[in-house]
UniProtKB/TrEMBL annotation:
Any one GO BP annotation for this protein: DNA-templated transcription
InterPro entries: LysR-type_TF_proteobact-type (IPR058163), LysR_HTH_N (IPR000847), WH-like_DNA-bd_sf (IPR036388), WH_DNA-bd_sf (IPR036390)
Domain HTH lysR-type: 18-65
Name of the protein: LysR family transcriptional regulator
Domain of life of the source: Bacteria
Length: 65
């Protein structure tokens, strides 16, 4: 039986991975129903949440709204 290796450090993001902050912002928008609520939960400005949404849309090359 092969022993599973354990890693102390997270795996690095690959070039094809979406920006994690943008994914978190999108998840909060979807779960909470809007940019203002997401901004409040994430403790950032609504414009920063909007910017993260645009970043994810650019990464995916498709609109998410």
């Amino acid at each position: 039986m092969k022993k599973t290796e354990q890693y102390d450090e997270p795996l690095p993001m690959l070039p094809n991975d979406p920006p994690l902050r943008a994914v978190r912002a999108f998840e909060a928008i979807a779960r909470l129903g809007g940019i203002s609520a997401a901004a409040n939960e994430l403790m950032i400005s609504p414009s920063a949440v909007s910017h993260q949404l645009k970043t994810l849309e650019a990464f995916l090359q498709m609109p998410l709204t």
